[in-house]
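Could someone model 4AD with this protein?
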Amino acid sequence: MRTSVKNLLNSASARDSVELAGWVRTRRDSKEFSFMELNDGSCLKGIQVIIDAGIPGSQEVSRMSTGASVRVVGELVESPGKGQSWEVRATEVELLGGVPEDFPLQKKGHTPEFLRSISHLRPRTNLYGATFRMRSRLAYAVHRFFNERDFTYVHTPIITASDCEGAGEMFQVTSNGAGKPEEDFFGKKSYLTVSGQLEGETFACALSNIYTFGPTFRAENSNTSRHASEFWMIEPEMAFCNLEGDMDLAEKFIQFLVKDGLENNEGDLDIFAKFVDKGLRQRLEGLAGGGFERMSYTEAVEKLIASGKKFDFPVEWGINLQSEHERYLCEEVVKGPLTVYNYPKSIKPFYMRANDDGKTVTAMDVLVPGVGEIIGGSQREERYDLLKAAMEAHELSLENYGWYLDLRKYGTVPHAGFGAGFERLLMYVTGMQNIRDVIPFARTPGNCEF
Ligand code: 4AD
Ligand code: MG
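Reply:
Sure, complex below.
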């Protein structure tokens, strides 16, 4: 039975016989024995293995170079070395797979761009191993957060005929390419979903509190460090809830994930603090312990104008806030996380609840320093006539979206929800600067390797 390196390093006592396997990080040889650091990705650290010359398999030791895969049987003993508690004294070693000299991860200090080009190998580096362990851990924390609050997890479809955000940035799904939609697989045009919200609302209007967590797709041609064509979104939807309750949940949700990231990662967080962002721990602790500022869109625009700062995209009431504005607001104005609410109706999707002023809707965005928008949500328009009018104004087919309108026809309720970009959350928690570095295989315009 193989034991993980993490388990061995955390062992409470010495063990007579252990078996482990992993990839060689470094090796030093002397005449009588070799020191090998073996890492299996179960944690950041590797374990030191001492291979005496002459034990079974030791004749292959010269081929156990950086990147090679090795199986070891031996004894777990206390380590005399500094900075580690346990090491393995091998009684038997086996080279599973050697590495030719062109192994790309020989040396340290590769650029993120180069590592992206070898996305199939980069999880073997310390930084990317830590990133993807953190991704897994936070995905689990997402489910814990909602489970603890009695939210039901709903699997909304990935193939859909609705355009939730109404922006027309959808990938079409087809089995006959150039054919007519009526003759295509589903008998109509279908797409990869941009959001599970609309289908999620149907379940909130039955099970009250629900969430979805799955892949979403956007065919927008944004080549930025924060946009991906395929990304994961967490979308809770709550019946009997208004904008206020929605903002409360969004802020608690981010705090929960940040706390989890801070508490539970043996060494992983330190590597981000060391190589990516020196102030990381302080920033995360500040968010976990502190509050979020809130500001209406109108106030935000006033603050931006009053700052006198020259932005690339000029500020006036009615504009869609750009990332330079969002970042200025949280990095310079409030110096922390900020929730902006009540945006102009003209720049938001059809489903948001209209405010009485006739100009704004109950939209909200949560912005954080360094990343900008991390969450977008709203209270939904639950009044039949107003929703119908909004759909008509957005030229949505009342036939295709009849089921959505039905929710307002049969026992309508006030309800609200939001979408949190999982990769953006990860960027915030790890300090990683590019969305391509927190998703295993990034899909961006012009790039679908692996
Ligand atoms: O603001 P968005 O577009 O909102 C919606 O899709 C709503 N239907 C959500 C809801 O209310 N249920 O997207 C939500 C979040 C954004 O705040 C951002 O974090 C992330 O999804 N996001 C992206 N992340 C990576 N790449 C992209 N291209 C993204 N577009 C949105
Ligand atoms: Mg948004």
